[in-house]
């Protein structure tokens, strides 16, 4: 994927996370877990965008590392929502799969870039 395609993909992912948060029940536990999800899920796109503007290879690698961490954290919060019975695993399936794919994509990117350095 090109950087532009990844930028669009991560932004669309962030939008889907926002929409999920908006649809969560208004219970305390759903809102607490949801806010954590909202922060990490939108951070993936924001940090990838920042990485694209990196002024050095080291800065780019650092930002890509944050993208990997935030995507993985998003998987965690999606799992928590399902495991706590806030929302069904089935409803979260596509977002969880996308989070896991983003972890893989950016993890491999980081690994390859580090080997090339």
Molecular structure report:
It is a single chain. With 117 residues, the protein is mainly alpha-helical. The protein has one domain (3-116): de novo design (two linked rop proteins), CATH 1.20.1440.60. Helix content is 86%, strand content 0%. The chain has four helices and no strands. It has helices spanning 3-23, 28-52, 57-83, 89-116. Helix 1 (3-23) runs antiparallel to helix 2 and helix 2 (28-52) runs antiparallel to helix 3 (57-83).
Labels describing this entry:
117 residues, mainly alpha, de novo design (two linked rop proteins), 86% helix, 0% strand, elongated
Secondary-structure map:
Elements: H1 3-23, H2 28-52, H3 57-83, H4 89-116
Helix pairs in contact: 1-2, 1-4, 2-3, 3-4
